[in-house]
Design a protein that fits this description.
Layout (H helix, E strand, L loop, with lengths): L4 H14 L6 H8 L3 H6 L4 H24 L5 H18 L1 H5 L19 H17 L7 H21 L5 H16 L3
Helix pairs in contact: 1-2, 1-4, 4-5, 4-7, 5-7, 5-8, 5-9, 7-8, 8-9
C-alpha cells in the first residue's frame, strides 16, 4: 500500500495543492478514490506515505544518476551532468519537493543513518571527492559543499521555475552554471 503508485500520486497531488498542512488520511483517501477505512485498515500512516513519496523522488534521482556515477568522464563533467539531472528530477517531483522546503530531513526507517536529504547529497559528495582527487573540482569540506550544491540547485531551480516562470532550460542552465562556478578550481 505504501508503494501503491495511485496512493503516492494522490499524496503528491495533495502536497502540491495543500502542502503538508492539508495532508490527512481523509484527503488522501478522497484524492486516491479510496475509502478512509481502506487506508486505515491497511495500517498506513501519513508519515509512511510522506516518506514513500520522498523515497520515490530520491530513488528517481539515484536511478537517473547511476550512469553519471559510473561514467569514465572526469568529475567536473560528471558533476555538471549530475546537477542537471537534479533539476530534471526536481521538475518531475516539484510539488512534493516544494512542500518540504521548510521541513527538516526525515529519517528513512529501512536505511540506517540515512535521511531523505542524504539521498540527494551522497551522490554529489562522491563525485566531488573524485574531483578533488583528480584536481577537476575543489572543496575544503566535500560533505558541506555537496549539501550546499544539492540544496542550491534544487531549491533555486524550483523557485525560478515556480515564482519567476523561467523555462526548464533557462533555469537549469543558469542554476547549474552558478553552482559549478563555486566548485571549479581557481
Amino acid at each position: 500500500m505504501v508503494d501503491d503508485p495511485d496512493v503516492l500520486d494522490a499524496v503528491s497531488r495533495l502536497l502540491e495543492r495543500e502542502g503538508l498542512a492539508g495532508l490527512t488520511i481523509t484527503a488522501i483517501a478522497e484524492e486516491a478514490a479510496l475509502s478512509r477505512v481502506t487506508l486505515h485498515r491497511r495500517g498506513r500512516r501519513i508519515d509512511d506515505l510522506v516518506i514513500a513519496v520522498l523515497r520515490r523522488a530520491s530513488d528517481d534521482l539515484r536511478a537517473s544518476l547511476w550512469p553519471v556515477l559510473t561514467s569514465s568522464d572526469d568529475a567536473a563533467v560528471r558533476m555538471r551532468h549530475a546537477l542537471t539531472l537534479l533539476c530534471e528530477v526536481s521538475e518531475r517531483h516539484a510539488g512534493a519537493l516544494a512542500a518540504f522546503y521548510r521541513t527538516p530531513a526525515w529519517p528513512l526507517p529501512d536505511r540506517p543513518d540515512s535521511t531523505t536529504s542524504f539521498q540527494f547529497i551522497e551522490p554529489l559528495d562522491r563525485i566531488l571527492r573524485d574531483g578533488i582527487s583528480e584536481g577537476t573540482l575543489e572543496s575544503d569540506d566535500p560533505r558541506a559543499d555537496a549539501t550546499l550544491a544539492a540544496n542550491a540547485v534544487m531549491w533555486t531551480y524550483l523557485h525560478m521555475r515556480r515564482a519567476h516562470g523561467w523555462s526548464v532550460e533557462d533555469a537549469t542552465t543558469r542554476v547549474v552554471s552558478l553552482t559549478m562556478a563555486s566548485l571549479l578550481p581557481g
